[in-house]
Amino acid sequence: MMGRHAKQNELWSEPVNLARRIPADHPLRKLRETIKLQFVPEEVAGAYGRKGNVSVDPVIVMKMMLLLFWDNVRSERELMRIIPLRIDYLWFLGYGLEDEIPNHSVLSKARRRWGAEVFARLFRQSVAQCLEAGLIEGSKLHTDSSLVRADASLNSVVAVTLAKLEESAEEEPAKRSGGGGGPVNQRHRVATDPDSTLVRHASGKSYPSYKSHRALDDKAGVITAVQTTAGIRDDGAELSHLIAQHQENTARKPRAVVADCKYGTSANFIALAGQGIRSHMGDLRSRLRNHHQSGIYPAERFKYDEGRDTYKCPAGRLLYRHHFNRHRGYYDYRTQPGVCGRCALAAQCTRSKAGRSLNRYPGHHLLERARLQSHGPAARRDRKRRQWFQERNFAEATTQHGFKRARWRGLAKQTIQDQLIATLQNLKILLRRGGFGHFVLGELLQSCHMALRVIQTDFQLFAKVIYT
Ligand code: SF4
Fold it and tell me: Fewer beta carbons below 10 Å: N end or C end of the chain?
């Protein structure tokens, strides 16, 4: 039988409540109930004048920025185009059917005006909400990083002369510290987004890039620290910042840090052991040994004499403290000149013509203790878990929130992008793991209220019929 659509006149004839069209389990309904944006107007009040045109409500602007990443909408222009077409978006933003949707430029203007702090506070608040819901245990931390392609074409990469390179190194020492980056990014500069750097990705191709560093709490995978840097930045150099941010955001000190061997540098091992934190990170030295030092005596074959501050090598010769490497922060130990050249074991001991050398850091006992922890069964178990635990978090950010491609240019804006995505991922964990009990209760009460009203109306009708 052919069906015919009956006209729905009630939409235009009587007040309607379109909120009923948003299902109780709609993710945006849950998000709206959970997210707390009351602080935004107060936080950005200083960025607005007292006279002139009235701005769009900052809470709505913030919600629009969240929507951009929530559904990975292609562009801000596209978002403004689809808002009037979607009842759930209108409801989430608090707009009516006839309200005028602002121009897409309000979002970029707001970002410029507000600065990064309001987004950092938004992220911190998401961590605090997860903490309150009991989703953060705080004692075990997983850290990792991922490259993000900058919004810059390969055509905008220009070769840098040596003079320019030295100039930029003086201007931006922080960006170039940490020992990261190979010859590719040292010889090139990205003209359209100078904060990004040319970095080789896993695919083998090089792109202008940023790097997003994250720390995840072990209990439910809540992101407790986010740091954004140029793509050249070494992972290990960001570990201390991530731990400090985690402690600040959760008020809890981690007992163990789990990470791959890019973080397992001697400096990090010593720093963690010094703070009483267990190192469950891969050991970078083991990887380097596989690559560069296979087939020669490992450092363990050399015995250290604390009283004389010397090492004894497998041939029974002594290695003395030679010099302090200020860049790497260790003492270099060597034999007397010419000793290694005359040694029968030289082929198994060194490939250097200058002879064998050993490194010893101040606080070497801490390093040895941390390395032992890193090779222990608990650390190996944690690193195995980390493979899916951390990767799942990055995979969700990539496939659902457009994490792998920078929407805007400049380090400050990329930081905002990372914080918005991390905030959404934390809120999703909160929604999934029962952080919206108040929402379920509210829905239940609303349903009971509606049911009572129906019963009341039916009873009145029934009484009317009996009476007549
Ligand atoms: S090469 Fe030098 S350090 Fe190595 S075993 Fe011979 S003397 Fe000792």
Answer: N
**Strand pairing report for 206-217 and 223-230:** antiparallel
Based on the fold, state whether residues 215 and 102 are members of the same structural domain: no
Say if residue 166 is in the same domain as residue 232. yes
Are residues 103 and 126 part of one domain?
Answer: no
C-alpha to C-alpha distance for 62 and 110, rounded to whole angstroms: 9
Phi, psi of 215 (to 5 degrees): -120, 130
Could you list the pLDDT tens digit for every one of the 468 residues in the chain? 566 666 555 555 556 777 778 888 899 999 999 999 999 999 999 999 888 888 999 999 999 999 999 999 999 999 999 999 999 999 999 998 888 999 999 999 999 999 999 999 999 999 999 999 999 999 999 999 999 999 998 888 888 765 555 555 554 444 443 333 444 556 788 989 999 999 988 888 889 999 999 999 999 999 999 999 999 999 999 999 999 999 999 999 999 999 999 999 999 999 999 999 999 999 988 776 655 677 889 888 999 999 999 999 999 999 999 999 998 889 999 999 999 999 999 999 998 888 999 999 998 999 999 999 999 999 999 999 998 999 999 999 999 999 999 999 999 999 999 999 999 999 999 998 764 444 444 444 444 444 444 445 444 544 554 444
Using the mean position of ligand 1's atoms as its centre, give its distance from the Cα of residue 292 in Å. 18
Atom of ligand 1 nearest to the CA of 346: 1
Closest atom of ligand 1 to 343 CA is 6
The CA distance from 72 to 61, in Å, is 16
Rounded to the nearest 10°, the torsion over CA 265, 269, 275, 280 is 110
- Which domain covers residue 26, as residue numbers? 10-114
Q: What is the pTM of this model?
A: 0.82
Pocket of ligand 1 (CB under 6 A): 313-315, 317, 335, 339-340, 343, 345-346, 349-350, 355-356
**Domain contains 438:** no
